[in-house]
Amino acid sequence: MYKLLFCKFGKSVILSVLLLVLLVASVTPVFAEDLPTPDSLAEQAPPSIKATETVPQITAQIDTPSGLVVKKPLEGSVFKDQIELDITAYTSEGKPSKIDVVLYYGHADRESYYLATGVGEIRKTATIPSIINGNKVKMEILASGISPGYTLRTIFLDRSSSYAIIESVEGKILDFNEDKILYTGYNYGYFGGADTVLKILDRHTRQETILSTHLPEDFDYDQVPAYLTPKGALFIQQLENHHQGLMEYSDGELTLHDQSDYYYGRNYRVIGSNAAFERQGSVLLKNVQNGVERIVADKGILWDLTEDGTVLYTNTTDRKLYTYKDGKSTRVSTLTDPSVWESSAKTDGTRTLYMRSDTNSLMMHNGTESIELAQNVFLPYETGFHIENGWSAYTKVEPLGTGIWMVSPQGEKKQVTFCNSHAMIRSVGSNGEVLSTCNGNLYYSSFLAGSDAFPVIADLGKLIYKNNKLYSRTGGSILAIHVTPNDITPPKTQLLVNGAAPVASGWYKPGARVEFLAQDDPAGTGVRDTRYDINNGPRQTYSGPFLLSGEDTYFYQVDFNSTDNNGNQEGQQRIIIKIDSDIPYTKSALSPNWSADKTYIKSYTVTLKSYDQTTGVKATYYRINGGEWKTYSGPFEMNQVGERRLDFYSVDNVGNEEKHPA
Question: pTM value?
Answer without folding.
Answer: 0.55
